[in-house]
Design goal:
This protein is an alpha+beta fold and 64 residues long. It has one domain: Irregular (Factor Xa Inhibitor). Helix content is 39%, strand content 12%. The protein is built from three helices and three strands, in the order H-E-E-H-E-H. The protein has a three-stranded antiparallel β-sheet with strand order 1-2-3. 2% of the residues are buried.
């Protein structure tokens, strides 16, 4: 049976930390930033953990 290929779209969107957690980028940071407060845009710049319900699916896409 051939090896499973990594989903390239998922590979660009998610990152695995050294401890094995999966991180993602937050939404709403790409445009229309003028009306959003500095505090909000700064908070959106940080990476977030993938929610527990989605971890299994994301790991499968990444081939983990």
């Amino acid at each position: 049976m051939p090896k499973m290929k990594t989903d390239r779209g998922a590979a660009k969107r998610f990152k695995v930390t050294g401890t094995g957690k999966i991180r993602r980028r937050r939404a709403f940071r790409s445009h229309i930033l003028e009306k959003k407060s500095s505090t909000r845009t700064r908070r959106l710049g940080r990476e977030a953990d993938v929610s527990s319900g989605d971890v299994r699916a994301v790991k499968r896409l990444l081939g983990l």
